[in-house]
TrEMBL record:
<keyword id="KW-0808">Transferase</keyword>
<dbReference type="GO" id="GO:0006526">
    <property type="term" value="P:L-arginine biosynthetic process"/>
</dbReference>
<dbReference type="InterPro" id="IPR036393">
    <property type="entry name" value="AceGlu_kinase-like_sf"/>
</dbReference>
<protein>
    <recommendedName>
        <fullName>Aspartate/glutamate/uridylate kinase domain-containing protein</fullName>
    </recommendedName>
</protein>
<dbReference type="GO" id="GO:0005737">
    <property type="term" value="C:cytoplasm"/>
</dbReference>
<dbReference type="GO" id="GO:0004042">
    <property type="term" value="F:L-glutamate N-acetyltransferase activity"/>
</dbReference>
<keyword id="KW-0012">Acyltransferase</keyword>
<feature type="domain" description="Aspartate/glutamate/uridylate kinase">
    <location>
        <begin position="65"/>
        <end position="246"/>
    </location>
</feature>
<dbReference type="Pfam" id="PF00696">
    <property type="entry name" value="AA_kinase"/>
</dbReference>
<dbReference type="InterPro" id="IPR001048">
    <property type="entry name" value="Asp/Glu/Uridylate_kinase"/>
</dbReference>
<dbReference type="InterPro" id="IPR010167">
    <property type="entry name" value="NH2A_AcTrfase"/>
</dbReference>
Length: 259
């Protein structure tokens, strides 16, 4: 065994420094007075884990679709976020990650002195912009895969990731009748191949979708990642769809209630 393994670490401790800790009595959760995470002998951790157990059991084997906006990659919380997603995978949740790259594309276009064109929330994607989307979409995908490859802590639990051009197809937005504007290479989701995605999920892989969608003829389109996440969640009948934001709330304007 190598010196970095736990067994060697144990035997590197001087014998006089090794203490034998007696087992502690199991205390029912209802009888514990201290909050989880406090107290000695691991009671806090055990309480926390028992409290989580029903949720782990109810979500194991279920599909979660998680939308990761591009700006999240530049935030200090991103490494912790990826580790949390890895923990969900370890606990048996089937993850579909949908990654956007809007902030990276906008930044790169400005660096190149190219126009950043939107109509509402929809980008006008010409050929030059599409090249930037391809570049930055590849960067985002690589960053996400890199963090998932690290696993969680020292467990060597590398998370396998599947990304493919066959998970969904896209069509051009074209020229909407009520707008009269040509969105060129901006696309919308045509079809989600739920069977292909589920095959990879059943094999224990995390499925990664980006905003680059392909038409049946091989054309590439820049799709809106949030709409892609909604389409994927609907077709996969996901148990949860999670949009990561910086504190924004979703509200149903018809009812005035948070969603």
């Amino acid at each position: 065994a190598e010196a970095s393994e736990p067994a060697d670490d144990l035997f590197s401790i001087p014998p006089e420094c090794i203490e034998v800790v007696p087992p502690f009595d199991v205390v029912p959760l209802s009888a514990q007075q201290q909050p989880a995470g406090q107290g000695g002998n691991g009671h806090g951790f055990v309480s926390m884990f028992r409290g989580c157990a029903p949720y782990i059991a109810s979500h194991r084997g279920h599909i979660f679709v998680v939308h990761i906006p591009g700006y999240m990659l530049d935030r200090p919380v991103f490494p912790s976020l990826m580790e949390d997603l890895s923990v969900l995978w370890i606990l048996g949740v089937k993850l579909v990650l949908v990654c956007g790259c809007r902030e990276q594309v906008d930044t790169r276009l400005r660096q190149m002195a190219m126009p950043v064109q939107f109509v509402g929330e929809t980008r006008i994607t010409n050929e030059d912009t599409l090249r930037v989307v391809k570049e930055q979409g590849g960067y985002v995908r690589t960053e996400v895969e890199s963090y998932l490859a690290r696993g969680v802590g020292l467990t060597n639990s590398q998370v396998p990731v599947a990304s493919s051009n066959r998970f969904y197809t896209a069509n051009p937005v074209g020229i909407p009748r009520n707008w009269g504007i040509n969105f060129e290479k901006t696309g919308k989701v045509r079809k989600i191949d739920s069977r292909a995605i589920e095959q990879h999920l059943d094999q224990g892989e995390v499925v990664l979708l980006t905003s680059l969608g392909y038409s049946p003829s091989g054309d590439v389109f820049n799709t809106m990642s949030d709409q892609l996440a909604v389409s994927a969640a609907r077709e996969l009948r996901a148990s949860k769809i999670i949009f990561l934001t910086e504190g924004f709330q979703f509200r149903d304007g018809r009812e005035g209630e948070r969603q």
